[in-house]
Amino acid sequence: MKYMLIVGDGMADEKIEELGGKTPLEYAACENMARIAGGELGRVRTCPVDMPPGSDVAFLSLLGHDPKTCYRGRSPLEAAGEGVALAEDEVSFRMNLATISGDYQNGVMASYNGDGIDGEDARAVASSLLENPEFAALMEKAQMRITVTPTFRHVAVVKATDEPFTLTPPHDIAGRAIDAYQPKGQKAALLRALQETAHRALQNHPVNLRRVKEGHMPANAVWFWGAGRATALESFYGQFGKTGTAGSAVPLVRGIAWLSGLKAPRVPGATGALDTNYAGKVEAALHALLEEGDDFALLHLEAPDDLSHLGDRDGKVESIRRLDERMVKPALSALEASGEDFRILLMPDHYTLLRTQTHDGTPVPYAIYDSRRPGELRLFCEDACADKPVLANGVELLKRFFGTDS
């Protein structure tokens, strides 16, 4: 038996008047997801009610880890995904490249991801800060080291003290003045100074000047958030007796997978955006399952969540359709052609609402397809699962999915 978990990040949503009173998932009316929805339908609470809803908490639950006992912050999970090791006395942060409009003191969070900057542009902009004398001096004073990546997501590490950090995710304050959300607590003055210095240093960076001419917003700021300490997770094989591979462009998901003992390869061209390497991720997952002998594969698409944070209704619908056509369809076809029995679990990790451009902790819909017992086609959406019982603890979902092989 082969098992595949397919996650459309943040694709669950509310009904939207402009979509005829339908949710984006309902409006997309995906044909291949409808095949999977012919199996078992249900709902699951991936994020405990007393924890903030997000992919960090949700993916811990989905891979069998109780976030109430093992969650130590988002950034350590991302750091692991980027190969950054933390000592016990260290704290890591996510350092986003961002766009802040206006002067820094009265600035507004115009884009939490620097208008989608990535690749060598992202690497060049972030690397230039490490060479900026004022920024470098503040890093030294904060005892900070930064690992630069070819995305808008970078990793910062400092020595820890007992004082907590109070940091706000930039995607939660899109379009808002940043003043009320500046860092507080441990090293707050230094973090604020680093952010303000970066804003000055990046305004006229050649990459930003070029991007503005091309019609993009400049990645003219950094924003620290997601602080946490080193995390150890229980082995996936030890929990479930299954080997596996995770296919995701997002360091957070790769990090949780890697800390769980799963393989987490980087797929060239996989960006987490709408224009990602869909085929490459599917091929990597199928290669692991059908040629390398793995039992389990995770396929993750970040785009629905990112587009929700941007308030892009049409983009979110398109991302769901691409997930269906470019990931669900070829995965189904290849698994059927293999002649092996298989199951597919399809779901979002959490709701991301276009109305608020933030996450929501509502229990998410899921569908489990079993190749030995295919059912009738039915639309996979929030309403299709609305009358189904809620699995109260997301940690239990994989146990249900693996179930019995008989």
- Rg, rounded, reads 21 Å
CATH superfamily of the largest domain: Alkaline Phosphatase, subunit A
> What is the number of strand segments?
16
Shape: globular
Spatial sequence of strands, sheet with the most strands: 10-11-1-12-15-2-16
- Classify the fold: give the CATH topology of the largest domain: Alkaline Phosphatase, subunit A
Number of structural units classed as domains = 2
Instruction: Name the average pLDDT.
Output: 95
Cα end-to-end separation: 10 Å
- Strand residue percentage: 15-25%
The helix fraction, in percent, is 25-40%
Query: Biggest sheet, in brief?
Result: 7 strands, mixed
Just give the CATH class of the largest domain.
Answer: Alpha Beta
Number of helices: 15
- CATH architecture identity of the largest domain: 3-Layer(aba) Sandwich
Low-confidence stretches: none
